[in-house]
Amino acid sequence: MDEDAPNKRNKLFSLKELSVKSLAPIVEKKVYENNSTQIDLIASQQLLAYFLRDTCNAEQMNKFTKAMTSSLNLTDLKITHEKINKETCDKIFGFKNLSSLELGSLASWTMFHLDQSLFADVPLVDVIEALRNILCEESRIQLQSLAITNDPVTFRTGWMCEMKGILPALTTLNLEKMPISESEFDVICESLSLLESFYVSKIGNLTGISNLKNLQDFHSIDSQFKGPEDVIDIFKLKNLKKLDFRGEQCVHLPCVRLYLDCAMSLFSLEFFNCMKNAISAEDVNLLATSHPQLKRIFVLDTRLQDVSQLETSNDQLHLISKGSLWQCLESLKLLDIRTQSELMNDVCVEIIGYLSNYEAYSKTVIFDCFGVLTQILRGELKFFIGKQIHANVLKCLELLCRGGRIEMFNKLTKLNFIDLLLETITWFNGRSDSVVWNIHSSSWNILHDISTSTLPEKSREFLFCQGIELLENAEHVLIAPKSCLDLMTKYLESRTEQLEDFLIYSKLVRKVAGNVADLAKLKFTPLFIATCNFLGTLHNICAVGRTEMTKFIINSIMYAFNVFLSADWLTQAYGFRIVESMLFYTDRETVKIVFIKHLKGLFLTLTQNEDKECATGPVISLCFTAFHLVERTYTMNELRTAENIAQISNLLQLLKHNKSIEYVDVMADFNSKLTSPMLLAWTKFMTTS
């Protein structure tokens, strides 16, 4: 794996992940006892991974209560990187509905290691005892799929004969990362007669495979076949639909040639993986003639990998290669990117060429480009892609965002496109160049034409969480365009209840508010307004009644206003109205404590500023908003102090003396809204000649 490739993401990615992180402490405190609740498969797997993250600590799995074990709705269990101890086994033993099990770390399961290993660096494992310790009887009886991957190990003698006794319903066995002997292969074929899918590696011959009458899917990786006699038993499998003779560590394998030398046919075969095999156009023609049901031949890393198509007698037969974008897309659905980084980078470079000459190609080609990029970044394989490939993917996406090209996509595809953009951008969080900025902007500007109210609730929650990730992890809040904040504000406004996880949103508020002053200094008014609006809405939904949060938000915005005072009065007026709406939910004492120093600073700045623009409509609008806050904050007796009277009189005299052409319109607007006797008196004072 590329050492530059990230190996995990410590970021909030979805509400499901947020809920898992919220649920975990409840489990740790042993207060979760709701036996009627069933958690879905994905959340169950995430929660289990959370508790297995450090199982070398014997106390970690003890935090799993019995109620939690029964509530986890696990049917598929993957234990791929964790160490296992007795306590862990006891907890996993409680899962009674398992149908699929993947074990990828047996080399670290020292409690099941035996002393008779022939190789110092390859442990001898009692896999039967391991399965008995982690699978209860119910799961052993119904388990259908077992995969043993990652670290190489060897198993004790006789394990194959016992496998059928403890896993009687097994239909899939994956041993592709664990070489077995020819005798072990033969015994497996005799004892596990129900197998429908079978993965092996570095096997020398297929003797005995004819016993697997139900086999439909056979994978033999890096096979060590020497002659046709090592392969010929495969032709007794009348139900076989998928045959995989690919190479991983080996190249120019003779498997396909030896298969054809048998001069026989598998009439049900639909797919043949010939990757890293010696294969020619004549061989493809021979396969087409002898295998009437064959639809796909995988030929990457062969001499045919750049061929788009060959004319054969079988019209439905297609090569899966990199001869065209469509074929790249098909290839990526089957490839293990961890072994094909150079090829993936070549594909990205080719797509850059397509997108750089966008007008010369049809929409179909561009759609295929998007499909290829999606496949490159799919699922867990993205963690194995190096930095160079990610950089090229980023360049491809940036090209695809130019000139309204994404308008060809429908709403659903646009949402998928946004997901892809935000997934990719997280790998380049430390960069601040124009490519990253364009990707960020494009991902949210797409939403201008999408009414969020028409989206399902889950989609809106997903987009909101993507916004949180963007804001939490960006080095500067400017990286999030105005449309991102506007969308998140709309989502918040659509909620009728308060946000429950206050700590998460408190952290978000502090991140955004902490950058407001920077926005003010940069005089980026539209984004500044959007940020203040977002903070105000977020406050009214999750911070109502929390005095310290109210103080923090208001102080952040007001500090920024003080920076803005001599530069942008319209923003100043807008911002004060947001603060006013926030203070509506706050007690008078809090308002007084937070607001007094800012209000005095505002009055002082206004009365001392000689700029003629100070008397324009926005400034008068700002002053009336300020007066409204003054009235709500102070009692009449407090307002009669000499200091306050002097400040208010100076300000009123200034505004009265410097009336602008917009003054009448502003006054008419406010006269229609004012009901306060004090504000009406001030209005009368200002309009008297």
TrEMBL record:
This is Protein CBG14615. One of its GO terms (cellular component) is Cul2-RING ubiquitin ligase complex. SUPFAM superfamilies: RNI-like (SSF52047). InterPro entries: LRR_dom_sf, Zyg-11_UBL_adapter. Signal peptide: none annotated. It comes from Caenorhabditis briggsae.
